[in-house]
Each structure stands twice: as structure tokens, then as C-alpha cells.
Amino acid sequence: MAVIVQKYGGTSVGSLNRIEVVAENIIKTRQQGHQVVAVISAMAGETNRLLSLARSLDKQASNRELDMLLSTGEQVSIALLAIALIKRGYSAVSLLAHQVGIITDNHFSRAHIKTVKTQRLAQSLEQEQVVLVAGFQGVDQEGNVTTLGRGGSDTSAVAIAVALGASECQIFTDVDGIYTADPRIEKNARKLDQISFAEMLMMANLGAKVLHNRSVAYAMQHNLPIRVLNSFIDTDSYDSSGTKVTDDEIELAKNNHLVSNIAHQQNQVLISLSKIKNAVHINALLQAFTDEGIELDMLTQIQKSTTEFLLTFSITKHAHAKALQLITEYCRFAAILSNDNVAKLSVIGAKLQSVDDILAQALTVLSQKNITVYSLASSDIHHSFMVDSADLFKGVHALHNTFKLNLLEY
After folding, report:
1. Which residue segment(s) compose the domain that 22 sits in?
2. Which of 212, 255, 268, 404 gives the lowest tally of CB atoms within 10 Å of its CB?
3. Quick one: 286 and 243 in the same domain?
4. Phi, psi of 206, deg, nearest 5
């Protein structure tokens, strides 16, 4: 009997009807002979509702109190789902993070899981109960409630699966797998049967919202397979559909494409700082960004002379105001140029390093489509381009067609 950890997102439990459907899906997994731990998000829209209440009182509300407030959304979901399962004759128990023993650091609103205790989980499974765990949350060493940030329920599920030695972690959402591009934008996007951890992590970092990047990194570190499935599709067998994220070389060998995905990321800002007189100021600024949890991409530092440095990078629009505040504090004499009308377009593939002309092909087709590239960044597994927001979707279509991602064989 295998332990299966399942995660259901907010849209999957967004109404009482949806909770009934999830209950049936869990029962189906139990009937296949598996023990089930299900990690549940708050009902769709609930976290935003709670956050809006807090912001109405104080736009600068304490992060500790926000975590206490926002964590209640998951408590509602797990209790309702437990009620639905018990009504159907299945023993179920709902548990909050402190009842399980999900221990985090004390970085409120963006905490990291340090350890997951398994005693309570193991006892409940031995009693043949379905265990329903509140996602997105933990407790620090002092017993304070913490939250893991947006998408944190994915990380909760992976961490619990690793702690229990589960055979895989199933992430149920409103799409039926990982696609070669966002199917809402690219109508010819194709579902992938499998993808490597490295590719999935890069996709998560570059805008794909199917999996949270920290959950992928955690699974990659512990070599725990993740399977992305659609909770809105009735399937008789959990392992017969979806996309498997794995490092199994035999499975990955089935993918013949050099490029696996065209990712995109909107709401970007490209910032260029010139006339910086001392590299020490750059180091201090970068450390301040890290301390504030501001993630940088497309980072380039150029020494124009012995007394002048140039720094360019991209951030999200959400972090723009705070970034400008830090820039004026640590590099107050720098000349600042911001472009908030840009988006990021990325070509991703585990085999990119084996082919020299992928970058050239991408740049050529973007030029042919009259798409200006303001900045680019490359690694063994991705090429990213900063383009005008108005050209983003055109760029997705052009690159998806260029690398023939709609075809099974290429």
C-alpha cells in the first residue's frame, strides 16, 4: 500500500460542489489501495478577501498578523472536505500545521519549511484515516503561525510527501498537465507527458504558474516525482494522465524535442542604473534586495571605467516601488532608467547546451517579426528575452512555431 500525497488548489475546492468532487476523487484513490494525505488550499478568492479586509484597516499591516489571518482560509477548506468524506462513510481528520508539526523559520509571509514531523500523520494513516492538511502554512520555533507565500501549498505537499516517503506527490489543479506554452495563448500548445526537474524549475522561475518554484526545488533535491493532474477531469487511474516531473532518464528519453517550453512573464520592469561610482554600492544594493525578498533577473554588471559602473536587471512590477526606494538609499547618485512596459519571453529545454544555434534561431525569428529585444540572459537550459509587452503573445506564437513544439516528433 503506497502513500500518495495529493494537493488541491483553490479553484479545485472553490465551492461546496467542487469540494464534493474532490472528496470523490480522494475516495477513488483510497479504493485503489492507497493511503492518502491531501494538502488543501483556501477556497478560490478567500485569501484575497482576507487580505483586502486587513488592508482596509492598515495598508502596512504587520506580517505576523497577516499570517495569522490568511492561514484561516485553509482551515475552512480542510474541515469542509473532512465533513464531505465522513458523510460518504470514510474516516477523515483535518489538521492544521501546528497539529502536524510543520516547522518553519520566522520569516512571516515568506517562511521556509525546516522540518515536517510525521508522528501524527503516521498515526492517522495507521488508523486508515484520510488526512487533510492545511497547506500554505507552518509554525516557527516559538509557535507563531507562518505562511509560505503565494503557491506555498505546493511546497507543503512536497515537503510532507518527502517526510512520509511517498511514492509521488500529485498536484491537482485546473489544467491537465504541463504544456509546451500557455494553452490560453498558444492554441497549438501540446501537453507534455514528462519533463525534467531542471526544466520545470526554470519554467516556474520564468512565469509558468502551474507549480511553485520552491516546491519543484524541494522535490528535485529529494528526487520525489511530482505529477500534475486536472481535478476537473474524471480519471480512473491517477498515473494514467497528467505530466510527470522526474529525473528518470528512461522516461525523459521519450521527449525528442530540444526545446520543451516557451514561457512568458508579464508585469515586468527593466531597470538600468548608470553613473554608479563604487562597486561596493552595488553589492550593498543587491544584499538589500535579497533581505527584502526582491528577486532579480536579467542581471548584468558592466564596469565602464575605473570610476563608473552600469547595472541592469529586471523585477516584477509588484516590487518596483520598493526597489526604487532601495536604489535611492544605496545608490543615490545613480542615474535611473525604468521601463515598465516590458515582458519576458523564454525558450526552455534541457538539451539546449547540445545545440549552438538555438539562441541564433530565436533572435532571428524575433527580428523577423519586428520584435525588439531590450535585454537577454542565457544558461545551459534557457534563453530569455525582454520585449515590449505588446509583442509578447506574438513572440510566443513565433517561437512555438519555430521550434515545432506542436509536433510529437521533431
Report:
1. 3-252
2. 404
3. no
4. -110, 25
